Please model this.
Amino acid sequence: AWEFNTDNNTEGWTAANHVESFSVHGGNFFIDPGLDPWIRSPLLAIDASSYDTIEIQMESMCPDTLGSVYFTTSSSPSYGEDKRVNFTVKNDGRWYPYRIYMGNHSKWNGTLTGIRIDPAQNGIVGTDQDVVAFDYIRLTKDTPPKVVNHRYGTTPSTNIYVTFSEDMDDATFTGQTVTVSGSSTGNHSSSFSFNHSTYELT
Model:
């Protein structure tokens, strides 16, 4: 884990790619992002099977809400879109915990050699009104939330309701990660909505 509890010590993390400034103080790692900012871990040698989740405590004032985690392994040592997991960031300047589940990625295996966190797609060049701060970054072993209940109607236009055991990021639910099986005639549109109070997907 990286806790950033020592002033001026990034614990091996590098802030780069148009990060305009960075500092560690008060137990937090601060960056002032420009275009396409990211921070990168020191060189790692970790068995990927020992961990499947990256936990981040972060605050953001960036103009967009798309975060990404990239990673490298000994067999695939370059950062790229083939080793990327996105997550949704809240950018109101408050602290939020994020748990990014990596275990479903087909290349999360072997020896993990690096992690890169893109807290946003873009900052605002030439201003300090878009600061991002990290309280901690941790590798943990987790399991995906479980389905505890589901219900649905019998007409083609019905909603399907699935209740999970805990809260999840909205970015978890896409046409690639959610599959509905069955048969009906005609064309039917679909969309996903997740209630963070009841943990119910509609």
Observations:
- The radius of gyration is 19 Å.
- DSSP finds no helices and 15 strands in the chain.
